[in-house]
Design goal:
Length: 380
Amino acid sequence: MNKPLKILALEPYYGGSHKAFLDGWIARSDHDWTLLSLPATKWKWRMRHAAITMAGQVAEAIRRGQGWDLLFCSDMLGLAEFIGLAPAAAQNLPCIAYFHENQLTYPVEHEREYDYHFAFSNMTTALAADRVWFNSAFHRDSFLAALEEFLRRMPDYLPLDRVEIIRERSVIKYPGIEIFPTRQKRREGPLRILWAARWEQDKDPETLFAALNLLRKRNVDFRLSVIGGGNSRALPEVFARSRKIFNRQIEKWGYLESRDEYINALLRTDVAVSTAKHEFFGITMAESAAAGAFPLAPDRLAYPEVLGKSAANGIEAFLYAGGPNKLADKLTRLAELLAKGDLWQGQPFRGREAVARFNWEATAKELDEAVAEQCQPGNC
């Protein structure tokens, strides 16, 4: 790589996976970064005002003498609006937009809950960017398919050709994950199950607790940690009910205050379970595997891409067909293997190996090279 680039990163929602992605990359990058961010609250308001607010922040930075070679933003920024409002010095920068998620394919119970302004904002951001990075091929493909279907419902002047333009400038750039410490000797006891996600309907907690009820009926002993959390005023009722039902099995419950607590939870669990209906990469499942837990995810979304759809050497696959019964069958089998002293059937590092390609040490270098390619002579 030639001399380091000066990169302006704009993140209107600096929290969760957005924050982890930028922090992990910047800490290992050879480039020179300026990060402007807004707090990770009120996501709808962030998407509406961020272009105005951040155009003002960038103008102030330019007045102080700052300048950059490239602009990097997330999907939470209305990039087309920003470019129209920003000073010329920022308008002319090559732009990369990173799509952690999109607002078109988010599952809602009722059609009237959609605010299509956000879908159009995602589309115009992709069109305004020189390159569009998606965090998985599943994300790219599902977004573009949904966008075409969405546009066909419009009354006239259908910009369907723009879908192909976005497709042509789209690439897959996976996020990175940390390297986890070596596991200590396992504590005695039954199968330890972890479910870690936002406590919302799109993560399908009902399937988790239905499967655990089936384990109890089968007299399968286990311990349970359910971590994550969400807005206490809008939590699905199943959490309060299940906390009472599984009280004797619970080891951890709710939001963990520190990263260290989260790491320890992953290092102590045997099986990390996802039941998600909505997931574009699955950082928690990748990190669980990196921490030595057995990842068990539905055979859909980005999980086959991230975890690898394989049952090499007869070892249990990391994917299940979906639904409480299939999940309970997998967990029952894993409990039986653990009771025999060989959960991994002789390959204890298989989970770590499946996600090793996402380690930050390799990912940051790849991302650095990708932005350098985007900023070749004539572009920067």
